[in-house]
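Q: Got a minute? One more chain.
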Amino acid sequence: EIMFGSLKNVQIVVLGICIALGTIISTVILSQGMINFKKASAEVIDVTGSAEKRIISDYIVWTSKFSARDAQLKEAFAKIRADLGKVKGYLAGKGIKEGEIIVQQVTTTPVYRLDKNGKATNEVEAYILDQVIEARSVDVMKLTAISRESTELIEQDVQFVSYAPQYFYTKLAELKLKMLEAASADARKRAEKILAPSGNRVGKMRSANMGVFQITPVNSTEVSAWGENDTSSLEKKVFAVVHADFAIIE
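A: Always. Here it is, folded:
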């Protein structure tokens, strides 16, 4: 019995030693793994990619204004109403549909008589009435041409002013996604070029964020931190930037 008890104690001690050694070895392996993981996590390359594309606007908004002036408000209103008929008739004759026109409300501005010292009095000398009309169309070229020819209305005794058209691209949301994808691919290519001399390879993308996204005239060199959104030009340049971090594989 004594020998059996001693043997049992020895087995317990040996088992304890094995458990302790196993714990130490596991801790070392786990610690080494964490060190390697942290090392791999820290080895990244930060690059900036970009993409550029030219587009042609597919939607136009053209604004114009005509005015009437008379000492009597009623007469001024009659004149502005007659001019509206002329303007709408002119646009219809050029092929602009009724549904493509937005006629805004008439605004009235009183003109006060001046005294001998040049100061305004409370006496109304005349009334100036303004009416803004807006035309919108997917036929960009046609409406562009009309905006340039519309001063012909002056020959019809209309006090007409034509403003520069605004040009838009209706598929911008879809294009933006494609541009960001292209900019991300460009970022990876740049990272590969940078790492090539060292023999390292580019791993998975660790993080990415969108940089400036801007729309400018084709020949413009303007850049802003918040991005440009040009509406003045028919042909535009779209530019997208992506900042990305990639893992480095040794």
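A: The two ends are 62 Å apart (CA to CA).
Q: Perfect, thanks.
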